[in-house]
């Protein structure tokens, strides 16, 4: 664009574009954008957490059955019925659970698990991006920001985890 021509952001004077908005307007817009990104990340984290816990729920259920089989009344023979054999491993546990209780029993307790974990996953997901943005202030394409991307990512994850634990577990 040549000096004196009108562009999308304002009139170009001496080769530099001027903004049609004041600095206050840009500041308010960036705050709205940051708040919008945080809310979007919060919702995305909650959805991701729910999906992940639902996907791994059968493995989690089998793990709990294996861990508690020493106190399981059916395995110990305390129910008045024939004593059930101990589980021989993860696959045996899943196969027997499906055969005896049905396929959907692998997801028993999943709703409670999702409700328990989704606030922490959502906060972790959104806070990490927020902290990473704070740590990378002044970053330029040449990489001359406050710190490297890997360091900022690590510190942002650590800070997000600490903040989440502080907020979730009083």
UniProtKB/TrEMBL annotation:
Keywords, comma-separated and alphabetical: Membrane, Repeat, Transmembrane, Transmembrane helix, Transport
Transmembrane segments: none
Catalytic activity, reaction form: ADP(in) + ATP(out) = ADP(out) + ATP(in)
Pfam families: Mito_carr
InterPro entries per the UniProt record, alphabetical: ADT_euk_type (IPR002113), MCP (IPR002067), MCP_dom_sf (IPR023395), MCP_transmembrane (IPR018108)
Subunit and interaction comment: Monomer.
Physiological role: Catalyzes the exchange of ADP and ATP across the membrane.
Protein name: ADP/ATP translocase
Species in which this protein is naturally found: Platanthera guangdongensis
Upper lineage: Eukaryota, Viridiplantae, Streptophyta, Embryophyta, Tracheophyta
């Amino acid at each position: 664009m040549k000096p004196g021509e009108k562009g999308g952001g304002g009139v170009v004077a001496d080769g530099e574009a001027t903004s049609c908005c004041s600095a206050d307007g840009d500041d308010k817009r960036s705050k709205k954008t940051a708040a919008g990104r945080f809310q979007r990340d919060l919702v995305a984290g909650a959805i991701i957490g729910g999906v992940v816990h639902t996907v791994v729920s059968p493995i989690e259920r089998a793990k709990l059955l294996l861990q508690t089989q020493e106190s399981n009344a059916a395995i110990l023979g305390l129910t008045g019925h024939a004593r059930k054999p101990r589980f021989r491993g993860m696959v045996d546990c899943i196969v027997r659970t499906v055969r005896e209780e049905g396929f959907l029993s692998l997801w028993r307790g999943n709703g409670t698990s999702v409700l328990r974990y989704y606030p922490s996953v959502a906060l972790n997901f959104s806070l990490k991006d927020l902290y990473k943005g704070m740590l990378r202030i002044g970053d330029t394409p040449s990489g001359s920001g406050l710190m490297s991307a890997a360091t900022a990512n690590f510190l942002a994850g650590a800070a997000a985890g600490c903040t989440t634990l502080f907020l979730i577990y009083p």
